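#struct-help
A.M.: can someone run this one for me? Single chain, 762 residues.
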Amino acid sequence: MFIAGVFTGCNVTKNLKENQYLLVKNKIEIENPGKLVSEGDLESLIQQDPNKKFLGLIPFKLWWHSIFKKGGESPVILDPGLIEETEKQMRSYLSNIGFYDSRISYDILNKSKKKRKVLYRVKLSEPFRIRNIGFDIKDDSIRNLVFRYNKYSIIDSGSVFNSFLLDSERARIADALSNNGYFGFTKDFVYYEADSSVANRKVDLTILIRNRDEPGVNKPVAGSGHKIYYLNKVFVYPNYLPFQSDTLPTDTIVAQINDKDDDIRDIYRFVYSSPLKIRPDVITRSMFIEPKTKYSKLDAGQTYKKLNELRIYKYVDINFRESREPPNTHPELNYLDCMVRLTRNPVHSYSIETQLTNSGGDPGIGGNFLYQNKNIFNGAEVLNVRLKVAMEAQNRSVNNENSTENLVFFNTFEAGIEASLYVPKFLAPVNEDIFSKYFRPKTTFNLGYSLQNRIEYDRTITNVSFGYEWSETKFKQHIFYPFDINFVKVNTTPEFDEVLADESQRFQNQYTDHLIFGLRYSYIYSNQEINKIKNVLYFRGNFESAGNLLNLIMNIADKPANSDGYREVIGIRYSQLVKTNFDTRYYFRIDKKRTIALRTFIGIAIPYGNSIDIPFEKGYFGGGANGMRAWPLRYLGPGGFQNTGDKRIERVGDIMLEGNFEYRFPVYRVFTGAVFYDIGNIWLLSENESFPGGEFYFKKFGGQLAMDLGLGIRLDFDYFIFRIDFAQRLKDPGRQPGDRWVIGNVNGWFNPVLNLGIGYPF
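D.P.: on it. C-alpha cells below:
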C-alpha cells in the first residue's frame, strides 16, 4: 500500500487547477551568440526556475511534497507575468552591455498535458562601440594623474559600449587619484557624456570629473575643489576598548622610525591604557601609513590587512580626519590625522577536536587538544601547541602478542605533540631591509614528536624545522625552510622481521632508523578572493633536497663509510634525495552552490648518494580519503603489483600521478552532495623484488592507472565540513592485465569503500 501510495503521489500535477501548469524547464537560444554574450550570461535573469532536481535528474523535493503534502518543495506554477519580467530584464541587460535594440521573444511549449517548457529566443543586435575617448578635466593636477595612469584603462577605442565596464573604469580612476593624495575622492565624481549621433552604432565618449562644489555630489571634506592631503599625526591605540577607552586613563609614547641614514623618517604616537603588552615596533612594522607622505587609499588598505594578520587583534579600525593642529612647515598644504584603533583578541585559547575515521575499512577514532598563546613574547608571536591521540582497528598482516589489544577493539595507537611559534617578521640571518614591506614576512619554528604503535612495528618521529613565509603579491606566496630535520627510529616486531626477511633490501630499509636533514621550498598561486564568485585556479609546486650539507661536511671531515658502504651521523645513516611535485586545482563555479572541482598531481622523488631508496615518510602513497578513495591509504600500487599473498604491507612509491574530478551540488539545507571520479597510481623508479611489476614504464603506465567512481554526502556547517564518501573500484591495476576492469567482470564486484573525513578532499 505504501509503495502504491508513493507512485500515486509522484503524479505531481494531479492537484493543479484547470489553468495551472507545472514549469519543468527554461531554455535560452541565441541566434548569433558570438563571444560577448552566452546563454549562461542570461540564465541568472530568469525570474522563475523549475523545481530543483537531485543530480539534475530527479525532483525529490517536489515528490516529497506531492506525497506527504508538507515539506519538500511546492510545485512551481508557470507565471506569465514572471516570463514577461524575464524578457524585460534580458532586454535591459543587453542594452547595458551595448546590445541596444536586441530582439527577445518567448514561446510556452507543451511537455505534456500539465507540464510546460519556456523557450526564450534572443536575436542580438550589432553592439555599439566606442569610437573616440576624450577628457574634460578642469584641474591640471588631476588631469595629469589621469593621463599618467591611463595606460591601465580597461576601455579603449573599439571597445563595446558596456555600462558595467564604464563603471569599473570610474572606480579605477577614483582609486588612482585616492592613492595619490586625493582623500575622499570617489567614483561619484567621475561621469561620462556619450554622443551616439556621430556614426552608425559608434559612440564618442567624454570623461568628466566634477569639482566638490558641483550639485549632486557628496562633500566628505569642505572646499570647492579636490585637494591633495598629506599625513600629519598618526595615533595608534594598541589596546582600544570600545565604549570604555574614553573613560580610562591613558599614557602616550612616541615611536620613532629611522631611515638607513639614521634620520628620523616617521613618528607614531601610541595612546594606551597601562600596561602596554605589545612592543611598538611590532605595530610600526605593519604600518604603511607614514607621516609626511601623501594620503594613499592603497597604503591604508595594506595597513589594515597586515595588522589583521598579526592574529592578536580582533578588530582593526582606521580613520582619517582633517588635522586640528597642522604643522608650521608648509602651511599651504592640506593635512590629515590618522587614528588606528586596535582591539585585542584573548591571549589564551583552548579547543578540543574529535574525529572518526574509516581508512579503507579500518575504523578509527582520534582527538586533538589545542592551546594557543597570542603574543607570548609581547611581539605578536603566536605559540600553538597540539596534543594528538588516535586509535585504529587495523586488519592483521602478522601476529603480534605485544600489539595494543587492550585498547578495546583497537590494535594501533598514535600519540604526539606538536609546537609551532609564529613570528610576524623575518628573523636573522635574513635582512628585512632587502624585502618590501608589502611581502608581509613571517618566520616559523616547528618542533614535533610522535609515537606510532602498529601491529608490525613501533615508530618514533622527531622533527625540527625553521623557515620563512612571505607573500609576493595578493595571489602569490612563497615558503622556504632552509632547516628541516626528521629523525626516525623504528622497532619492528619479531613476527614482522620474519616477513621483512623475505623482502628486498630496499623494502627492509623503509623500516630502519634514518636521519633526514634538508631544505624545502614551496610556491603557491591562488586567485581566490573572499566573497567573490569566480572560477579559481590553485597551484602549488614543492621542492625538497636532503643530505647534501651533511655529505659536504662528511667529505671535508674525510669521514669514512661503514661496512655497508654508507656514512652515518651519531650512528645513524642519513638520507640523500631530491623530491618535487606539482599540485594543480581548478574550481569551476557553475553558480553560488554548484562547483566542478578538478585536480592533478604529479610527483617524483629520487634517492642518490648515501641512499638507495626514498625514506618511508618522504615517499608517495596511494589511496585514502583524500586520494584514490576506493583503496585504503598506502595499499594502492605500486604500478601493476599483484598482491597474490594478500600481505598487509604498506606501499611507498617514487612516482605519483593522480587526477580527480568532483561535481559538488546542494541537496537540502546543510546537506550537500558530490559525484566524483579518481584516477592514478604510484610507481617505483627501478625494479623491486618485494613489488614485482611496480616499476614505471612509459609503455605500461597507462594500463596501470587505477580508477574509481563514487558518491559523497557532506554536512556543510560553514565553519567545518563533515564528509562521507562511498567509492567503487572501476579499474584495479592489482589484477591481471586484461582483467583489470572490475564492474561486471569480477564476482562480488560491487564493494564500495566508506571514507569519513573533515573538509573537502581537495
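A.M.: thanks! Residues 348-468+493-502 form one domain.
D.P.: also worth noting: The longest strand covers residues 476-492.
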